[in-house]
């Protein structure tokens, strides 16, 4: 399976939006979680923030961010996705590149410490994971030196942080790899190739550990929240396509596995609602790194002055 076929779900116009399920955490949809965070930190849209969103997709969550931005950069590796957001947000600058390359290009363009908000929603696991594994015609293959991969991935996170202006935020959302839905996905992909130590959660561990190190250096403060919820499929067929089209990318080895087929069908049946929909148990990790200097960042104002 080649890299292009693996990414086909993101490259075919309209496919990803058609297959994407709505996600709710504590009764709040993921896009509203971001909208609530923006309201809590910036009150009302000012149209003045400098914002970059990596892995923007077709701009679903960008809808919440755009009213706050005066300088908006949207990056995605998919030409299809970039074309979609360019049409939706004509005043934004777009970058068609993998996230790691997009970060490198912004640093080369002297954008270090220049963004009030650096964001990535549901997408950071991919650029982090690419340091640890690669796609080849034979399938997914772990890179030989995992220690080197860890160092490269942590440097990448450091580069993300370096884009944030003083007082700004790095904001990310990642799926919870320990949720029942994601555990099923992990078991399936483990039949294709092993994951690094820590299973599919390793990308989150790399991100959080690197941000914790940045906090310890005094570069900012880390807030990490895990919320439980559901991915809502309006029908059994929609749930099935979510697994095989989005999670499994129509990988031939997975499509031809009768045991996996049975496991997915049983899982869907377990979480069907009386109305015929499917409430797949899910979880999100909401990660906010605030670029403020220690120790004053954590002291009451009367002590910090």
UniProtKB/TrEMBL annotation:
InterPro entries reported for this sequence: Methyltransf_25, SAM-dependent_MTases_sf
Signal peptide annotation: none
Span of domain Methyltransferase: 51-126
The protein's name: Methyltransferase domain-containing protein
Origin species: Nocardia rhizosphaerihabitans
């Amino acid at each position: 399976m080649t890299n292009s076929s693996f990414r086909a779900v993101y490259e075919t116009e309209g496919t990803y939006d058609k297959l994407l399920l709505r996600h709710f955490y504590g009764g709040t949809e993921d896009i509203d979680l971001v909208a609530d965070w923006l309201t809590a930190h910036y009150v009302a849209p000012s149209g003045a923030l400098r914002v970059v969103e990596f892995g923007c997709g077709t701009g679903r969550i960008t809808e919440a961010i755009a009213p706050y931005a005066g300088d908006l950069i949207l990056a995605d590796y998919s030409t299809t996705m970039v074309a979609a957001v360019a049409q939706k947000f004509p005043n934004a600058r777009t970058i068609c590149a993998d996230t790691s390359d997009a970060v490198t290009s912004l640093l080369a363009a002297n954008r270090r410490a220049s963004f009030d908000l650096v964001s990535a929603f549901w997408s950071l696991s991919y650029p982090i994971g690419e340091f640890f594994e690669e796609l080849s015609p034979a399938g997914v293959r772990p890179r030989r030196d995992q220690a080197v991969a860890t160092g490269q991935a942590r440097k990448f996170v450091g580069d993300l942080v370096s884009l944030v202006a003083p007082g700004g935020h790095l904001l990310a959302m990642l799926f919870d790899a320990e949720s029942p839905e994601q555990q099923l996905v992990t078991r399936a992909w483990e039949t294709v190739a092993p994951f690094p130590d820590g299973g599919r959660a390793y990308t989150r561990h790399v991100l959080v550990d690197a941000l914790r190190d940045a906090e310890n250096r005094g570069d900012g403060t880390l807030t990490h929240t895990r919320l439980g919820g559901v991915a809502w499929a309006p029908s059994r067929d929609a749930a099935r396509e979510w697994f095989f089209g989005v999670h499994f990318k129509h990988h031939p080895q997975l499509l031809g596995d009768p045991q996996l087929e049975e496991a997915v069908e049983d899982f869907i049946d377990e979480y069907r609602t009386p109305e015929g929909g499917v409430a797949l148990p899910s979880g999100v990790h909401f990660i906010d790194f605030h670029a403020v200097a220690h120790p004053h960042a954590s002291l009451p104002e009367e002590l910090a002055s």
